[in-house]
Amino acid sequence: METQPSLTRNRNFVLIMTGETLSNSAMWVGVLANLQFLQETVQSDFFKSLVLVTGPILGILVSPKAGVLIDRYAKKTVIMWSSLVQLMSAGLQVAAMYFHSLPLMVFGLLVLNAANSFYLPTLNSVIPLLVPKQELVRANAVFTNVVTVTRIAATGIAGILLTLLPLYEMYLLAVLLFAIMFGIRYLLVFHEKKRDVKQGNGNKLSFFEVFSLLRTIPALILLMVSGTLVFLFLGGFNLLILKFSEMQQDAALKGILYTVEGISILIGGTLTKRLFSGGDLLRRNVLLLSGVALALFFMHFAASRWFVISGFALFGLILGMWLPTNGAIPQIIVPEAIRGRYFAFQGMWNRAIFQFALVLTGTLLDLIGLSMHMLVLASVMLFGFLALYTIAQVRNIRVTAPVETDKQLGASA
């Protein structure tokens, strides 16, 4: 059996992470440019929200077909085509900014979200082909940290560039980053099982096979519920930060909370390899929900600057450990033949919960206020943790993390 290189020497993994850095940088440059463009051209906040929500909704609708195509065709092919469409979307945004056309901007957003509906599940399906199973938790931790660092750096730099460059030049920069990303992803070389792409009834793939998979592997259901609970908070994340800043009448608090949360995610990611090497990944993933509940309870004291900052710091730390396990568990237990459809379904579900949580957060903030909202959310999180942990214990549902043996360590050195 061919021995795969260690993560630090894995050429394909380095290429994937480099491409992600460029892709996320281009995305955040585009996000800030879009927000600035909307602020200049659209007066209604409601209409702005409609524009921003169209992309994720299309992503939800496209996901089932994307999952089938990912499992039907070579993943390198799907990666390259989706990367090309990402590049095309940036080109549409350049045209939208240059001609000051809102319809072109919306169309560009739709194209980008459609491309991401193919690319992101493919990426999750490819990582297990590039990385040894015993390195998957660490690989997902590195991925989480790369995304976090890129978000912090790109938003800061893009914010400065907005004051110096016209909007269409901002998107020219995004086009350049996407073009370099496309070239880097082209260099990927990996092997996967050959598949028959004929459309005969005997081998036609169905997206609904995902539901049979969930019934067969109950750990995936527990993982989906765990993710749903976390996304109930993440969906309203930006709205809540604005509300905390408004309640404490401190505009600088927004930047402090984003920074504290981002730095804490990085710390959590670095701790993941040490804390999650071996043992039951599923129980540890569920156990982290208790930390999220505690963080949200701290935020319940919304008038206290230090309680709120502490809550966001704790949440970031927990999230930095939760995200890698949430990514690694299905990569370990989902068969290769159906990974594309599973990750497409997971992405579709997460987008739907994210949008639902955004609306729910806004509604509850109006009805019961910020402090009570955080208390309710903390209670739901705590109850969810207790229920999931009890089910895992009673039914003995486990996902054991693969551990490197001395022989494997020596072979990969």
List keywords for this structure.
413 residues, mainly alpha, Growth Hormone, Chain: A, 2 domains, globular, disordered C terminus
Structure, explained:
This protein has 2 domains: 1-188, MFS general substrate transporter like domains (Growth Hormone, Chain: A, Up-down Bundle), CATH 1.20.1250.20; 216-401, MFS general substrate transporter like domains (Growth Hormone, Chain: A). The protein is built from 15 helices and no strands. It has helices at residues 11-41, 45-72, 75-99, 102-130, 136-162, 167-186, 209-216, 218-234, 237-247, 252-275, 281-300, 305-333, 339-368, 370-394, 406-412. The longest helix is centred in the N-terminal third of the chain and has 31 residues, at 11-41.
In short:
With 413 residues, the protein is mostly helical. The protein folds into two domains: 1-188, MFS general substrate transporter like domains (Growth Hormone, Chain: A, Up-down Bundle); 216-401, Growth Hormone, Chain: A, CATH 1.20.1250.
Second CATH tier, the architecture of the largest domain: Up-down Bundle
Radius of gyration based on Cα positions: 21 Å
**Shape, principal axes of CA atoms:** globular
**CATH class identity of the largest domain:** Mainly Alpha
Strand content: under 5%
Q: How many runs of DSSP E, i.e. beta strands?
A: 0
Helix-strand sequence: HHHHHHHHHHHHHHH
Count of the domains: 2
Low-confidence stretches: 405-413
According to CATH, the homologous superfamily of the largest domain is: MFS general substrate transporter like domains
- What is the SS-derived class? mainly alpha
Task: Kindly identify the CATH topology of the largest domain.
Answer: Growth Hormone, Chain: A
Q: Roughly how many Å apart are the termini?
A: 16 Å
Give the biggest sheet.
none
Helix content: over 70%
Mean pLDDT over the residues: 85
